[in-house]
Each structure stands twice: as C-alpha cells, then as structure tokens.
Amino acid sequence: MNNKKEILKFPKNFLWGTSTSAYQIEGGITNDWSEWEKKRVESKKFLSSGKIADDFLCGKACDSYNRYSEDLALVKELGCGAFRLGIEWARIEPREDEYDQKEIEHYKKVLIEAREKGIQTVVTLWHWTNPLWLRDKGGWTNPEAIKHFSRYTLKIVEELGQYIDYWITLNEPLVHVLNGYLINKFPPQKKCPREAIKVFNNLYKAHNEAYKIIHKIFPYTNVSITHLVNYYEPARKWNPIEFFMAKAMHYLANDRFLKKIKNYLDFIGVDYYFHDRIVCYPPFRKNLNIETNDMGWEIYPRGIYHVLLKLNKYSLPIIVMENGIPDRRDKKRQWFIPAHLKYVHKAIEKGVNVKGYFYWSLLDNFEWAAGFDPKFGLYEVDRKTFERKARPSARMYSKICKNNQIEI
Ligand code: FCB
Predict the structure, then answer these.
(1) Best substitution site from 320, 367, 372 to test ligand 1's pocket, by max atoms within 8 Å of Cβ?
(2) 117 found inside a domain
(3) Which of 138, 268, 321, 343 could pair with 305 as two cysteines, CB 3.0-4.6 Å apart?
(4) Is 360 in the pocket of ligand 1 (CB under 6 A)?
(5) Which pLDDT belongs to residue 142?
C-alpha cells in the first residue's frame, strides 16, 4: 500500500479566510426576516409539526454584535488572512433615509479592530435581509430599491470605505429570487414569476450602480457579488436532451446574472455547495449521493473544479467565498475541506486565477429557514452561554491556512 502523503502548495499570497453574515451571527436585529420568523412560528401548522419555536427565531444569534473581538481573535487563531462579515442595512438605516450613527461607529470599531489584527476585511452589504421600510415598499420588486441601495452604499463608502478591502454588494441574488419569489421558501414567500423577474432585474442594476459608487471613491478596490454556482452535468452524457438541459440550467442559474454584471466586477466571488446530475424525467435530478451532509445535501468536491473552469471565460480573478458543510459531529469536515481544496488546486494548475478560499462558516449560526440545527461552524457555539469552542477541524483548517498547503 502506498501511504505517501501528497503535498499541494497554494500560490504565494493566497487569501485564506472564513465567511459569516451579519444577520446569521450578530443577534438583536429587526428586519424582514425577523418579522417573518415570528409569524412563521406563530402559525399553528409550523409548530404542530413538532418544532421548537426558539430554534427558528434568530434572536441573539451568536451574539457577535457584542462578541466581535472574540470572533476576530478566532480568525487570527486560525491563521486566516481575511474575514468576511456583513453590514446589516436595517441597523444602518432603520428608517428610510435616516442613518443611525451609533451603528456606523459600531462597524467602524469592528473593521478597525480587524485591521489592527492584520486581518483583511471582506464586507457584504446585502445578504438577503431588508429593512422593514423597504419590505413595506415591496422589497426588491420595487425599482426604487435600486436608488435606496445606492444611497445606503454611498453612506457605507463614505463612512467605512477606508477600512474595507473587498466589497460584496449582494450575496447570492438568485437564491433570493428563487426562494423568495418562486418556491415559497424564504420571505416574502411568493410564487410569482413576474415578480421574480422584476427582482432579478432590480438586483443586477443595483449591483452595477453600487459598483460605480464604490469605484468613484476607491478606484483601485475590489468589488464583486457572491454568486452561488452549481455544477450541472447530464446524468447520461450521450443523451442529447439531458445534455441540453444541463447546459440550460448552467445558463439560467450560473451565467445569466453574471452576464448582466460582467462589466462591473473586479473579481468573481463564488459560493460552491451543489452538484446536480440532470435527468430528462421528473424530478429532473438524480444524484448518486454517495456522501451527504447533515442537511442531506450531496458532497461532491469535484464539482468545484468544473465550476471554476467554467468561470474562467470571464477572465477575472476568482475567490471562493463560501464552501462548507453542516456536520454536527465534525466527522466529515476534516475530509471535506482538503477534498475541495484539492480540486481548487487542480483548477489553479489548469490556469484558473483563484485568489482565495473562504470556509463557510467561522461559527455555528442561524441557518435561515432551517434555523439553528445545521452546524456549519469551525467553532461550536453554546446556545445559552455563547461560548465558542474549536472543533478538531478548526485546528486542521488552521494548519492549512498557516502552511498555505494541503496534505492529501
Ligand atoms: C449560502 C448562504 C449562507 C449560508 C450558506 C450555508 O447560500 O449565502 O448565508 O446560509 O449558504
């Protein structure tokens, strides 16, 4: 048996990081999601299915609003050079065109502390959540949302821009379109293709405007979105219908939005979680699911390679901004991370300009409609005391970040 370890080195200055979002970790936020969660748990149907309300209310989340120093210390302990965090629009602009200076100062403290610790900052401006006043105006179905988002962006640029290294204007816009406006999963729980198209259009226009606003003041900074890119392949390569369907899915889910914003990107932020083997009969997907995670999602590391190769045509640097696994017992994570990184490395060898990798997520957090159950964290978080505790895979990831290499 050959037990020799293979060492794969990453390029010099490769950016290692972890990702989080404001709503999922900060706690104490009132926005369209918090109000939706309340209504949801109050509904008889929801609770009669044996669910516990507290598990589906974001509430104090990980209390990162108060414990950000502790979180930044964890990022440092991991040896990550960068940290992705979010700014919550509803905190900054609780009422239309009224800004809360205290909250701006709060984020300033966080960003300055990150800098002082030698951590580069990747800041998401919008991660699916809207202030209530925007929700009441129809959210992103309203074309005015573009103007509102531009104004909010300008405020952040002026107040905090000097402390931000990488900008993510929007997180996974198509997930908001799909889950919020087509399949009834996320607020505002609509099933309306007409509205979905409006939201799609307003989101890409908002990104393009925000890009210009940021670049006007910081011409050399890095701006992108985080885009969920799935790997679609025909289950049977010889089947022309499946071949065509996989191509169509790739176009609709991966390419279409990017094409609309391609002139307003300094890099592409990629989130990779899913692979779909497309079949030509319902339910049109037949994955082999040889390995799955706690949420039942297939684990398919090779897919990240194909995704990166496909994105190469945009001739832009790429940063993997999210890749992670819900794995409560930390049984698969130590395999999952290097398994994906092996394929990231392979893509780099093939000439794809991948500049960094961010694990999702630093902490166990509030996983949207799935509540607190999924455990994506390198660090466990005690739901009562908020104590953070490193999982073994945190030590493993730290070794990768510090040595800039993986051992296979
Ligand atoms: C991504 C989201 C992120 C988190 C992970 C698991 O789609 O951007 O907030 O929920 O999935």
Answers:
(1) 367
(2) yes
(3) 343
(4) yes
(5) 98
